[in-house]
Write the structure tokens for this entry.
Amino acid sequence: MRNHIENYTGRGWHLLPLRPNEKKPMLPDWVNACSADMAVVMGWLQRSPQMNLGAACGVKSGFFVVDVDKKADGLKTYGRVQTSPNRFPPTLMQRTAGGGLHLLYRTSEDFSPGNRKLDKLGLTGIEARGQGGQIVVAPSAVDGVPYAWDGSSKIVAARRAAIETINRGFDKFVIGAAQYQNDVHLLGRAADHRRIA
């Protein structure tokens, strides 16, 4: 756990303690109490060695998450999207304990999507987790199943138009979309190349 905490805080991610074997925060005011200070996070770990670990989404940590929920048929939707021109660009991805996916995308210092289901955009079983949201991160586990990073260690930058689409709830959801091949230099502009523990 210590290596993961060091890696995450080194990236500037704001972390929070979660209840052991759960996704629920241990701190009532976690939105304000989450921290990128390794000493603070290690203090939580010392007081609760079995805790799970969460990361705050949004401007504090510099990323938002496309959360693909297997139980809600999100993987089917994800598979369909990935065969279309509007596919999600490759980025840092985490496999969840429930068999779903977390896709992390870089956001700007002052602009992040909120937290909302994207069913109205035709993306059944997929949610955006941004400002005011959090995700469980490895090496946490729920029901004995660990979260694990998979694939690229880079977080690519989402185009602002994609974030605005999420926030407005328009009928089209695009991160990179059809212009991805032409805009790859923009998507990679803020990529984080550090390795995940």
